[in-house]
Amino acid sequence: MPRMTVEELLDRQEIDDLLIRYATAVDTKDWDLYETCFTPEAFIDYESAGGIKGKLPEVRAWLEKTLVMFPMTQHVVCNRVVEIDGDRATARSVFYNPMGLPQEEARQILFFDGGYYNDKLTRTDDGWKITERIEESSYSTRLDRVLAASS
């Protein structure tokens, strides 16, 4: 494999920072920060995890409403494969996502989701942004999904 140029290394680092910023935004429920990860016309598909798909504004509104019920989420994004072609790129990243559902007496039930983020990205005047994110869920320990799979 040929050595990367300085430009390629900088692009990869910026894309890596973008993917980390996404996880940070979701886990801190900072929806303004979440929007900085995407182009305004971005398409996002969370259907494989039981969510919605659509344009950025409607997906942001859905996340704001839905994730409020989880006092704890932790999105870990790793094992990234990034391919850059000029001002366009693709990325496939593993995600591991423990989440906590509140129970009585200040307790939580934890469940775990995992899979892949399949992204298309573009370089903008504000840096790299996601233009399309397709979540590809591989597993979930949520009881409703376990029961549905066994029936």
How would you describe this structure to a colleague?
The chain has 151 residues and is of the alpha+beta class. The protein has a single domain, classed as Nuclear Transport Factor 2, Chain: A. The chain is built from 4 helices and 7 strands. The chain has helices at residues 6-28, 31-35, 56-66, 143-150, and strands at residues 38-45, 53-55, 72-73, 76-85, 88-103, 107-124, 127-140. Strands 1, 2, 3, 4, 5, 6 and 7 form a 7-stranded mixed beta sheet that branches. A hairpin with a 3-residue loop joins β5 (88-103) and β6 (107-124). It is globular.
The CATH architecture can be given as Roll
Strand content: over 45%
Which percent range fits the helix content? 25-40%
* Helix run count: 4
If you consult CATH, what is the topology? Nuclear Transport Factor 2, Chain: A
* Radius of gyration using CA atoms only: 16 Å
What's the structural blueprint in terms of helices and strands?
Blueprint (H helix, E strand, L loop, with lengths): L5 H23 L2 H5 L2 E8 L7 E3 H11 L5 E2 L2 E10 L2 E16 L3 E18 L2 E14 L2 H8 L1
Parallel strand pairs: 1-7
Antiparallel strand pairs: 1-2, 3-5, 4-5, 5-6, 6-7
